[in-house]
Design a protein that fits this description.
- By secondary structure, this protein is of the alpha+beta class.
- The protein contains nine helices and six strands, in the order ααββββαββαααααα.
- It has helices at 23-32, 47-51, 91-100, 129-138, 149-152, 170-181, 186-193, 197-204, 210-217, and strands at 55-56, 69-70, 81-84, 87-90, 108-111, 124-127.
- It has a two-stranded antiparallel ribbon.
- The longest helix has 12 residues, at 170-181.
- It starts with 22 loop residues before the first helix and ends with a helix.
């Protein structure tokens, strides 16, 4: 049986895998071109100098035609993402702080222009979460009624025993409602199905549940 050699790097006693180096030093060489370099330092360019080159100030952008849009990495909802050591931050929040100073704890940055990628300071304003939701509703962006996801994407709406919050399955739900109609007490139903009395009362009080109607109609 051949004798395995050790890594050629001084002080390393790991087994050699490639080019006379262990797996760790070989990976360092593949990544950085030097088996002794663990990682390269990040660019030392100040964040503010890296920020503005990623912003497009072309005319005609956004609903008002004068938005400054983030041209780099974006969140799926359209908001810009910017690396400000030690983490990614929303680009519009970073822009607001550059112009106005630190954002108070718990406050949000809202868009007057209603354009998520916009980072123009004059289009941003400070507000609470309630302010943000009120602004959303006032501009008609709240998904209410037929625009709600339960109507537009019914297949993705999880109900009944498919839900991770479900305490009893569909069969037990039908049985619980049947026993309830026969006069079983809340405490007895709680003990039988292993749920709280509050949960039993909640199920009893919602005979109009769509899921309940579907199950009882399919018997």
């Amino acid at each position: 049986m051949p004798i395995e050699s050790t890594c050629s790097i001084d002080g390393c006693e790991r087994i050699s895998r490639a080019r006379g180096w262990c797996k760790m030093h070989w990976k360092r060489w593949r990544t950085h071109g030097d088996p002794l370099v663990a990682s390269l330092p990040r660019a030392t360019v100040p964040a503010v100098e890296r920020f503005w080159p990623k912003v497009s100030k072309e005319l005609g952008q956004g609903p008002w035609g004068d938005c400054w849009e983030w041209a780099a990495n974006r969140h799926p909802q359209g908001y810009g993402l910017f690396w400000a050591h030690p983490k990614d931050v929303c680009a519009h929040r970073f822009s607001f702080e550059l112009a106005n100073g630190p954002i108070p704890e718990g406050m949000e940055i809202c868009h007057r222009c209603d354009n998520p990628p916009c980072v123009r300071p004059s289009h941003l304003f400070l507000g609470t979460h309630a302010d943000n939701m009120a602004d959303c509703a006032a501009k008609g962006r709240a998904a209410k009624g037929e625009r709600n996801g339960r109507h537009t994407k019914p297949a993705s709406t999880v109900r009944g025993e498919r839900s991770g919050r479900c305490k009893i399955d569909d069969r037990q739900l039908i049985e619980l409602r049947k026993l309830s109609s026969e006069g079983w007490s809340t405490r007895d139903l709680s003990a039988r199905f292993g749920i709280t009395t509050k949960h039993v009362c909640f199920i009893r009080a919602r005979p109009e549940w769509r899921r309940t109607k579907e199950l009882e109609g399919s018997k």
